Amino acid sequence: MDLLRAAGRILAEPIAADRDIPPFPRATRDGYAVRAADLATLPARLKIIGEIKAGPLPTQVPSTLNRGEAFSIMTGAPVPQGADAVVMVEYTSLQQDSVEIIKSIVPGENVVAQGAEAKRSSLVLDRGTRLNRAAIALAASVGKSRLQVFVRPRVAVLTTGDEIVEVDAAIGTTQIRNSNSYSLAVQIQEAGGQPVLLPIAPDEPRRLRQLMEQGLQSDMLIITGGVSMGRYDLVEPVLAEMQAEFFFTGAKIQPGKPVVFGRVKCGLCGAGALAREGPSAPVSQKTPHKYFFGLPGNPVSTMVTFELFARPMLEALAGMSPRPLTFLHARLKSEIRVKSGLTRFLPAILSGRYEESQAEPVPWQGSGDIATQSRATCYLVVPPHREQISAGEWVAVMLC
Ligand code: AMP
Ligand code: MG
Fold first, then answer.
1. 226 lines ligand 1 (CB under 6 A)
2. Where do runs of H (alpha helix) occur along 146-277?
3. I need a labelling partner for 59 at 20 to 30 A (CA). Which of 49, 113, 176, 395 fits?
4. Is the N-terminal amide bond of 288 cis, ω within 30° of 0?
5. What phi and psi values does residue 286 have, to the nearest 5 degrees?
6. Does 163 contact ligand 1 (Cβ within 6 A)?
7. Is the distance from the beta carbon of residue 217 to the nearest atom of ligand 1 less than 6 Å?
8. pLDDT value at residue 274
9. Residue range 228-239: average pLDDT?
10. Can you tell me the mean pLDDT for 190-210?
11. Among 160, 180, 197, 249, which residue has the most ligand 1 atoms within 8 Å of its CB, making it the best to mutate?
12. Of 27, 38, 193, whose CA–CA distance to 101 is shortest?
């Protein structure tokens, strides 16, 4: 696939350096290429024997530097043989055909040695790497204009609930527009999958099962709503009827406690995208199962549980090397009090720069409050044993 189109995708081939990086000892400053030993006594006066700029080497100047000599040199240019350091122009003054230098230097200063960043033929990008801006730049720098990437898994999204209606539909007072399918579609895309939105399932077992079976044609199925303890929460019973294997049916978190994760044997499932369209991730090759998540329907619960549980699974299916969830730290701006027992994820706004990062919890109406969530920039993570955290304490935050 074309280099730019591969941005954000997962690399399916190892990439090696086609030559040493840098391919020559590279000057990192504008100044003078010198022998460090010539600057033992200061100020030192060296004879300028030529100029080297980035690009083709000049032919009319000597190629080697001897005692008492200097080359004028520009950032990015090859340091000539005989020179072992570059003095910044700021520490020099030009005097006709010589330069006076007022600062000593150690060998290697302001020079990146040939091959110091990567040796020729060494691995620079491994299979399973997500192609971020630096990875794309690195691929370009080793001459790869096309990259092989893994197929993006298809992830079916099934929203459930008698009260849920589509965005464009005429709506009654007690009805709720489907927003979860859309937040999930965004999260799936961000995690490297292709969302497949299914029609909304009513709280009725037969139709629900029919739509779940349709969802299992994809590589993974994410259901939202219908996993709590209510009489019309039918997702778990219908999955159980389909002989699903449950890995867990709840987590000690809030929001998101009723989250469900499991798999279904593939008698009923289609091939999915992975088996059809090209190189697929090792995890997903020949698996006789399809994985599913049942995420609670409250919009913030859906978003949080996707990040914590569904994203890592989807990344594995997409071929990405496993990585831990990342948490940052910030100082709490104002005191929080919660009930202990569950790890809590509270919407918050980050501010402050560098080591002054602060997190301010935003007042919210609970896990149905998308308006507050849309203003938040992170979740503040409260560990289960804490009931109170004072302003000024360090807290963990997860970006959102
Ligand atoms: P449930 O998990 O089915 O009990 O739903 C919990 C809450 O989330 C209820 O208030 C639902 O109306 C709401 N909800 C469920 N699904 C969606 C959805 N797709 N979009 C927006 N809200 C939803
Ligand atoms: Mg429901």
1. yes
2. 180-190, 205-215, 235-241
3. 113
4. no
5. 55, 25
6. yes
7. no
8. 72
9. 93
10. 97
11. 180
12. 38
CATH class of the domain at 151-317: alpha beta
Please tell me the residue having the least CA distance from ligand 1 atom 15: 297
Pair type for strands 69-73 and 31-34 = antiparallel
Q: What is the largest CA-CA distance in the chain?
A: 92
State the pLDDT confidence band at 285, using cuts at 50, 70 and 90: low
pLDDT score recorded for residue 278: 72
Mean pLDDT, residues 197-222 taken together = 97
> Is the pLDDT at 279 greater than 70, yes or no?
yes
Determine which of 54-63, 166-175, 254-263, 343-352 has the lowest per-residue pLDDT on average: 54-63
What CA–CA distance (Å, rounded) separates 143 from 136? 11
C-alpha distances in Å from residue 233, one per residue of 126, 131, 179, 207, 261: 44, 40, 19, 14, 16
The average confidence (pLDDT) of the chain is 95
Helix H or strand E segment including 101: strand 98-101
CA 353/CA 350 separation, integer angstroms: 9
- Report the share of the chain in percent with pLDDT over 90: 90
- Reported as a pLDDT band with limits 50, 70 and 90, residue 286 is low
Within 13 A of 10's CA, how many CA atoms are on the CB side?
25
Ligand 2 is a single-atom ion; what residues have CB below 5 A from it?
A: 161, 225-226, 297
CATH of domain 26-112: 2.170.190.11
| Rounded (5°) CA angle 377-379-382 | 155
Mutate to test the pocket of ligand 1, among 163, 171, 175, 176 (most ligand atoms within 8 A of CB): 176
Per domain, the residue ranges of the chain are 15-19+119-149, 26-112, 151-317, 328-399
Please state the φ and ψ torsions of residue 261, each to the nearest 5 degrees.
-135, 135
Exposure string for 161-173, b = 16+ CB within 10 A, e = fewer: beebbeeeeeeee
Structural tokens at position 21? 């990086």
Please give, one letter per residue, the 3-state secondary structure of 341-390: CCEEEEEEEEECCHHHCEEEECCCCCCCCHHHHHHCCEEEEECCCCCEEC
Q: Report angle CA 252, 254, 258 to the nearest 5 degrees.
A: 65
What is the pLDDT, as a whole number, of residue 63?
A: 82
* Cα separation, 360 vs 17, whole angstroms: 45
